Amino acid sequence: MAKIGYVRVSSKDQKYDRQYEKLKAEEVEMIFEDKLSGKDTNGQNFKNCWTILEKGI
């Protein structure tokens, strides 16, 4: 089973770099990302990540 991760930042000025570093160190193979508020769970890539997790890929 693939290791799956999700990264999120709240604004266009923020970067994913540190989150990616940590996931890569854990050998995460599939990473989804969104730029949206932490209160919002409607990000398209959040939904895509959740769908993959539900399917157990």
Spatial sequence of strands, sheet with the most strands? 1-2
Low-confidence stretches: none
Radius of gyration: 12 Å
Average pLDDT figure: 88
Highlighted features:
57 residues, alpha+beta, two-stranded parallel ribbon, 2 strands, 37% helix, 21% strand
Structure description:
This protein has 57 residues and is an alpha+beta fold. Helix 1 (17-25) links the parallel strand 1 and strand 2 (30-35). The protein has a two-stranded parallel sheet. The protein contains two helices and two strands. The model has no long low-confidence stretch (mean pLDDT 88).
Would you summarize the structure shown here?
By secondary structure, the protein is of the alpha+beta class.
Topology:
Blueprint: E1 4-9, H1 17-25, E2 30-35, H2 44-55
